[in-house]
Amino acid sequence: MLTKFHDALRLRTSPVIFFGSAAIIIAFVVGTIAFTEPLNKATTAASDWLLTNLGWFYILGVTVFLAFLLFIAMGRFGRVKLGPDEEPPEHSGGAWFAMLFAAGIGSILMFWGVAEPISHFGDPPRGVELGLEAGTWGAARDAMNFTYYHFTLHTWTIFTLPALCFAYFIHKRNLPPRVSSIFQPILGEGIHGPIGKFIDIVAIIGTIFGIAVSVGLGTLQINGGLNQLFGVPETAGWNLIIIGVVCGLALISVSLGLDKGIKVLSNINIVVAVLLLLFVLVAGGSTLFILKGTLESFGSYLVNLPELALWNDTMSNSGWQNTWTVFYWAWTITWSPFVGIFIARISKGRTIRQFVSGVLAVPAGFSVIWFGIFGYASFDIELNGEGGLVDRVVGEGDIPGALFAFLDHYPLAFPVSVIAIILVIIFFVTSVDSAALVTDSMANGHEDYNPLGQRIFWGVSIALVTAALLVFSGEDGLTALQSTIILVGLPFFIMGWFQMYALLRALKEDAGEMPRMRTREWAQVLPPEEYERREDDAEFDTEDYVVEPTYTTEIPIMRDPYEEVEEVEPEGAAGSGSLAARTGSSRPELPEDGRPQSR
After folding, report:
1. What's the angle, vertex CA 347, arms to CA 70 and CA 340, rounded to 5?
2. pLDDT at residue 574, rounded to an integer
3. Residue 72 near residue 65, CB atoms below 8 Å
């Protein structure tokens, strides 16, 4: 029946995955509007339980993911190319970084650039534990430690792990661009069965909800900026208008495709963002203070990183980490499938070492600069200027309006704030645009021709979920966003552990297990007096013993471990073998000597 309905609508996708995901999205939107209060209570209760009992699991998970990525990149698998062995990278380094920046974290930088450092400066996370007073230099240093912890290596780790898995299985094993493809070494042919489809539905739902949270935060920020500049009221009606405009522009970009849509917008984003960054650095009159502070805070972050990476707020048990760090990790990992597939799509031809170092270091390095400049410029306003940011952000809780309150202390505040609003809009347009394209690819299982209507459906779905979470969830829409995303993020963290195993197993299968190290063998040595005693005693045999250290075999001769690879006929024709055999996950039979033969 689903197939007939699918064909009647002239779709070109997987009926089970498409309609399964669509049904859940529609049910959530209708349920949120019809049963707002009971649904909010249930979501809040469930998220509170999870934060209390499993918050540590989120903290541990991201740190383990980071360690795994470093292990893979620095080891022998770091030289493996994500694609055909002789193929060069598909995009230049500059274009690659611009697309990484726009689709991954650009919108986050705009929202939290001022709000995060000032929030922790005015309310130190470890104030009780370390005896830090709000508004002091100690509070400023710890505020930057947590800001860097939240938005540099760990955030990009959450994107990099699935992105690397996607890049390997899509470009190396030529599997469909779906989350289920990552589990092919475990599931084999099952990636096309019920378990694989379930994984893909969960991934699509998580992506839609993750982007919806991002668009919701962006909507609040845009509305806050419009309120400050033009007196636009911060109401549900205006939130709906903003959601409609952002998603409408995204649908136009979707129809233009990757090269004419996302790529062009990404290049505009990076240029305007850098110009805004330079304006904040120079125009405030505290350039030297900002540069010195940024460098100093980066060093402090590196020193404190091991502690921060495993800190669980055990002693004070204030609940701070649940509402900040755990929320960040849960939110980020829900839209990691979309960012992961997007990064994998633009990273074909790079080695694993290049991929991990680039995706981790380059955007994280930019985040260090961005938050350092905005953070210390904010501290300068509080400590040496007119102040008022802490009162606005911490006292009044106006996190969405933090950027515009900050720019109000700079010259040309009005035109620069208008540019900032436009930049925020473009960032969120590219996020929705990318999510619609990637979600459609996950549902289809390929990146060839797809009807435009399918991509438009996913863009509209993001708008509907955003509206349901932000506008129809009562007065505190932001709390509804946070509670929902914490729950949605849990299955993604669980899948992350299986992703590490699947990638490592696939690499060992495709690159071949390294033979054990062979060394020269030596005879067992006895002290001279003991050797003489045993020679005189008929009960002992000294044939296998020596007094002088003596080797019994020659030094092994090192040979090239690689043999010429012969072309073979693909075994993927209809009716020929299982999927595991066709894609390399079944272990070949070994000859009697136990050594694998070259294919």
Report:
1. 70
2. 47
3. no
Please report where in the chains the tokens 């980066």 appear, as a residue.
298
d(CA 265, CA 287): 30
How far is the CA of 205 from the CAs of 93, 165, 461, 521, 594, in angstroms? 32, 20, 10, 59, 46
| This prediction's pTM | 0.85
Looking at residue 118, its amino acid is: I
Residue 93 DSSP label: H
End-to-end CA distance of the chain: 44
Greatest Cα pair distance in the chain: 106
The pair of structure tokens assigned to 115 is 């709000």
Closest CA to 195 of 16, 398, 447: 16
Render 34-49 in DSSP notation, one character per residue.
Answer: HSHHHHHHHHHHHHHH
8 A C-beta contact, residue 527 and residue 548: no
Cα dist from 80 to 72, 92, 171, whole Å: 10, 19, 12
Gap between the Cα atoms of 95 and 269, Å rounded = 12
* Residue for token pair 């419009």: 226
Q: How far is residue 499 CA from its own chain's centroid? A: 13
Nearest to 309 by CA among 54, 52, 59: 59
Per-residue model confidence as pLDDT tens digits over 404-441: 999 999 999 999 999 999 888 888 887 788 788 888 88
Give dist(CA 183, CA 175) in Å, integer.
11
Q: Whole-angstrom Cα distance, residue 96 to residue 570?
A: 33
Of 365, 362, 300, 280, the residue nearest 110 (C-alpha): 280
pLDDT tens digits for 515-527? 778 889 999 999 9
Mean per-residue pLDDT, 142-164:
95
> Structure tokens of 538?
């008929």
Per the structure block, which two tokens stand in for 167? Answer: 């890049």
Three-state DSSP class for residue 522: strand
